[in-house]
Hints:
The chain has helices spanning 3-6, 46-53, 94-97, 128-154, 177-192, 233-244, 247-251, 273-278, 281-291, 303-318, 348-351, 356-360, 402-422; strands at 15-21, 33-36, 39-43, 66-76, 82-87, 110-113, 119-121, 157-161, 200-206, 215-222, 253-262, 267-271, 324-326, 329-335, 340-343, 366-369, 375-380, 384-386. The chain is of the alpha+beta class. The protein has a single domain, classed as D-amino Acid Aminotransferase, Chain A, domain 1. Helix 4 packs across helix 5 (177-192) and helix 10 runs antiparallel to helix 13.
Amino acid sequence: MSPAFGAMEVEHYSKGVLLEPFVHQVGGHSCVLRFNDKTICKPLIQREHQFYETLPTEMRKFTPQYEGVVSVSFEEDEDGNLCLIAYPLNGDHDNLENLDNADCEPKSKLLRWTNKKTMLLENEKISKEWVRQHRKEEKMKSHKLEEEFEWLKKSEVLYYTVEKKGNVSSQFKHHNPWSMKCHQQQLQRMKENAKHRNQYKFILLENLTSRYEVPCVLDLKMGTRQHGDDASEEKKANQIRKCQQSTSAVIGVRVCGMQVYQAGTGQLMFMNKYHGRKLSVQGFKEALYQFFHNGKYLRRELFESVIKKLTELKSVLEKQESYRFYSSSLLIIYDGKERQEVSVDSDPEDLEDLSEESSDESAGAYAYKPTASTVDVRMIDFAHTTCKYYGEDSVVHEGQDTGYVFGLQNLIDIIKEIRDESSE
């Protein structure tokens, strides 16, 4: 328990938040957790934290919004089950409240801390029997997940059927084996260090998927070089090998993970980083095509927005003096929710948003109107980022990050090729 809480009088307490796996994490190895609907958190790495706190203004629209730091600890029950709890840093009790803590679901997950070192569920309607049964179910899922992850590493692409019950987005929980594995690994690391430490700092970031009902997410590892300046010789050699054996060396970008909703079958398709490393340039192009295809048709109305944002990001990065974004990823996100049919003789206001592409696909009495055609393009993961403003860095680079810019230009060119070929 934090000393700040240990010194508190018994009538005072702070609400903590039970953290859950972030089910839309499709790549990376760092554990990303759900704080609430609009906020995620991940272990604080000093270099990444410094990046967010000194972020150039022109880059802010291309990165998640930084929302501060919380302290995270874990509890272990008699069965050995672990859970992670976030609470205010340094006794700043308003910190979590300002993050719309009431957004967390279910509300029984708000925790009360006392100087008795006990953790009490605020919702007293939750019985001990229910909690015991819930933990038993989670344990069974955990064992199954280990088997799934072994399959995940061997399989190139996975398909999970989404149950057609209620809102599609509500069925995402526990469907992404990658996020669940990262969550398990984080818990294990914290458990192993329990004797020495049970307080960890996590940074809070904007949940980029929160605006989408069925997020389709593409995680791209950018640049021709992945190792940081501080990498060991072994790490450096390993990263160089991965780049040389993948599309990173050839076009400066490779697939690190993908999640796509297939409207035709009601399935989620996952592509992992192991498969991404094997792709040729043509295979990379086919993977991009697959990302924009929902199993019924190609989402052509998304191309112009993606190209425009990538081009703008490229222009911004070309002006960033001395920045190097080693091992950083780029996310492309859109809503996979199926389009709704709109009668062409509807009120004009109902049709004003119809794009030219979707109008071309219309057939007689009906045209297709995308329910959410917005696309998000964001840079993430800055654990190995460096620039001249980081005074302690021994290596200072000059000019733009040519490897990252090279990857962006090739990504733009390939998306344009897909767009042009699909319109022929």
